[in-house]
Write a structure and sequence with these properties.
Layout (H helix, E strand, L loop, with lengths): L1 H12 L17 E5 L2 E5 L10 H18 L5 H12 L3 E2 L3 E3 L2 E7 L7 E6 L5 E5 L10 E8 L5 E8 L6 E6 L19 E2 L5 E7 L14 E7 L9 E3 L8 E6 L5 E9 L2 E8 L4 E6 L6 E6 L2 E6 L7 E6 L9 E4 L5 E8 L2 E8 L2 E7 L7 E3 L6 E6 L6 E7 L6 E6 L6 E5 L9 E9 L5 E9 L10 E4 L17 H5 L3 E5 L9 H5 L6 H17 L8 E6 L1 H12 L6 E5 L18 H4 L5 H10 L1 H4 L8 E7 L8 H13 L6 E6 L10 H18 L1
Parallel strand pairs: 33-34, 33-35, 35-36, 36-37, 37-38
Antiparallel strand pairs: 1-2, 3-5, 4-5, 5-6, 6-7, 8-9, 9-10, 11-12, 12-13, 13-14, 15-16, 16-17, 17-18, 19-20, 20-21, 21-22, 23-24, 24-25, 25-26, 27-28, 28-29, 29-30, 31-32, 32-34
Helix pairs in contact: 1-3, 3-12, 6-7
């Protein structure tokens, strides 16, 4: 708490900009090329070569430069100490039941990684199964996922290191405690579907795991059937022959093992869906239009399908697998003004999670859509991790809000109200904060929701610093879920604003489409309008507004930084995409062409070139203080984006504000990052921000 008091003092009185010398020189090696009749300049393309000795020397010099600034900030240790205290509260996942056993993960105290446990029965003893903390000295090895066999005697799991997410799949015998000889390299999200007798499973992986490069584990995939004891190379292909490289197939086995549902991901919000009758080996087409989203769950001969076909905010339909054509579909849960996020069968009922104005509702119905019951939630927050299966009489879900730590609830067939199964004890006084929702107009008049989080009594008189956070893409909503990273900021009396921009799923597929491809500028306009609104309404000090975003949100920050550099005091962009003319040439980025487009296409080039942050940097502009952070092992977004952008900003700015690169060599996009690295990362981010405001 002493550290927190020190932090509050810094928040109140400020540190001002700290002096910093000129950055290391980044050599300009101009490459000019004509793209669709437009000459495009690229002065730092040489920094795309991440393994070259010149690039490694550049990274070392930039890292040293950035560390000399960040390590000198007097509030850094106070922030680090507080982040460590908050994160020591740990985490817990919703359980998966198999054979009367409950499998879940939990992180205690200062453990770097969550540990996988098995609980015998609802109230039985916990048995530790997998402890990634003992698998490496630096805490960077993680268990990415795990799936128990139906009798709960075997456990498949994926393990990766250094944030790569490149899983190797193993099988643990829970009776003997030993691992089977069956090992599967480079499978990533294998999604094993166990056969009832435990003799094997359906799963997905690349066709040729030996030849794929970093970040390519989702390319050229097929669904296979594995039998225990057989080498994975001999597993037969079940589904996926002839698919395009970036289309991702998956298989989901019905509870009674009669049907295998076969899904092909085409892009965010689009997939094909088929169902194979394993008794007759007959495959029927459920949807092959390629324009909508379909996710189903099979109960006997009926498929309960969640789709946005003819319903942009989704509906649940029942498909009789004997007559699967769309004209025979029956609507069970119609579209409403709230977006249906998931539907799941358990205890003879259909549980439906909705999102209304970017927060969760939970309902249950009979399977014919009647007898609706609203399940009471603790407040305005987010339901996540809903786990159930049609043959079970129970379901589990997690509930949290921005300032309330996750609680795991169980819903039993004999009860209508959820009961607490497990929870995280938080060191934060949640009653000390206010969470409110406002709506503001974007550039084109569209009303955008935004959450404001602050200490109770924080004045709205234009006197406090503000941080604006956003994402806006890939059909992903920013809803109120427990966010440990926010507390050093709001405990110091500052305002946090989280904008629900177009491109997400907050209002269904129309909201998503309004922020993708040629409509992407809407997302940046929404974000910029949020900043203008916060200033105009007196929520923040106009001279002390900071922006932050990660991944697609890092692109958002890059666009806002280059389009309106006058609006922000500082910008923090994490693991970002920034060169949008070449992004799809690196790692797994071809999967995102359906969201952004590709500069290889003349029409797509027009909008990509118009907003690509790297290409919007203007010589002589005074850019605000900027911190860009990335990691070598990021298999999603190549760190070349961060390298090139830092070089270009440093070479172009006429201002004196620091422009820094934070570069980690044994980390990835964020998934699986050990606790100590998370603490250090946020200590750097917050101390950088505090130093500017």
């Amino acid at each position: 708490m002493i550290a927190l008091l020190a932090l509050v003092a810094f928040g109140l009185f400020g540190c001002g900009d700290r002096s910093i010398g000129p950055p290391p020189e980044s050599e300009v090696r101009m490459v000019e090329e004509s793209m669709h009749g437009v000459t495009v300049a690229d002065p730092y393309r040489w920094l795309e070569e991440g393994d070259s000795s010149e690039t490694r020397q550049w990274i070392a010099a930039q890292s040293s430069y950035g560390r000399s600034y960040l390590d000198s900030l007097p509030m850094r240790e106070a922030v680090r100490e507080r982040m460590a205290e908050i994160l020591a509260s740990g985490s817990v996942s919703t359980p998966v039941e198999a054979g009367g056993r409950y499998f879940y993960s939990r992180r205690h105290g200062d453990q770097d990684q969550p540990v996988v446990y098995m609980r015998e029965g609802l109230d039985g003893e916990d048995r530790e199964l997998l402890d990634p903390n003992a698998m490496s000295d630096d805490g960077t090895t993680t268990v990415d996922w795990y799936v128990p066999s139906k009798d709960g005697k075997l456990l498949t799991y994926g393990k990766s290191a250094e944030g790569t997410e490149t899983s190797t799949m193993y099988i643990l015998d829970l009776e003997t405690g030993s691992e089977l000889e069956d090992v599967f390299p480079k499978v990533r999200f294998a999604n094993p579907q166990w056969l009832k007798d435990g003799s094997g499973f359906y799963y997905s992986r690349p066709v040729d795991v030996e030849s794929i490069g970093p970040g390519e584990e989702l390319y050229d995939r097929r669904v296979f059937l594995h039998k225990l004891g057989r080498g994975y190379a001999d597993d037969p292909v079940v589904f996926g022959e002839g698919l395009e490289k970036a289309h991702i197939p998956d298989g989901i086995l019905s509870d009674d093992e009669r049907y295998l549902m076969l899904d092909t991901f085409l892009g965010w919000g689009r997939n094909h869906l088929y169902v194979r009758d394993l008794r007759t080996n007959r495959t029927v087409t459920i949807a092959e239009d390629g324009d909508f989203s379909y996710f189903g769950e099979i109960l006997r001969d009926k498929l309960y399908l969640l789709t946005n076909r003819d319903a942009p905010r989704y509906r649940v339909v029942m498909v009789d697998l004997r007559r699967p054509e769309p004209e025979h579909w029956t609507t069970v849960i119609p579209e409403s003004d709230a977006v249906i996020e998931f539907s799941s069968i358990a205890a003879g009922r259909l549980f439906v999670g909705r999102m209304r104005d970017a927060h969760s509702e939970l309902h249950s119905y009979r399977l014919d859509g009647t007898d609706e019951r609203r399940i009471q939630l603790p407040g305005l927050g987010t339901v996540s991790g809903f786990t159930s299966k049609p043959s079970s009489d129970e379901a589990f879900f997690s509930f949290s809000s921005y300032v309330h730590a996750p609680t795991i609830y169980r819903i039993a067939s004999e009860a209508t109200e959820p009961e607490v199964w497990e929870q995280v004890d938080s060191p934060v006084d949640s009653d000390a904060f206010d969470v409110r929702q406002v709506f503001y107009p974007s550039k084109d008049g569209t009303e955008i929701p935004m959450y404001l989080i602050a200490k109770r009594g924080t004045p709205a008189d234009g006197s406090v610093p503000g941080l604006l956070y956003g994402y806006g893409g890939f059909n992903i909503a920013l809803t109120p879920s427990y966010s440990t990273w926010i507390f050093p900021w709001i405990e110091a009396g500052n305002l946090l604003a989280i904008a629900n921009l177009r491109g997400g799923s907050e209002y269904g597929e129309e909201w998503h489409k309004a922020g993708m491809l040629g409509n992407k500028q809407n997302v940046f306009d929404d974000f910029i309008a949020a900043g203008e609104y916060l200033k105009a309404e007196g929520f923040v000090d106009p001279e002390r507004l900071v922006i932050h975003g990660r991944s697609n949100g890092g692109l958002l920050v890059g666009a806002a930084l280059t389009q309106r550099p006058d609006l922000w005091r500082a910008a923090v962009s994490g693991v970002p995409l920034l060169d949008m003319l070449r992004y799809d040439r690196f790692r797994m980025a071809k999967l995102w062409v359906s969201e952004y487009g590709s500069a290889e296409n003349a029409e797509d080039f027009q909008w990509l070139h118009a907003y690509s942050p790297y290409h919007r940097v203007e010589q002589g502009e005074a850019y605000p203080a900027t911190l860009i952070y990335t990691a070598d092992s990021d298999s999603r977004v190549d760190p070349m984006h961060a390298r090139k952008m830092v070089a270009r900003l440093q070479g172009a700015t006429s201002g004196k504000a620091p422009i820094l690169l934070r570069y980690e060599e044994s980390a990835g996009h964020g998934r699986g990052k050990p606790l100590h690295k998370i603490v250090d990362e946020w200590a750097d981010i917050w101390s950088f921000i505090f130093a500017q405001v």
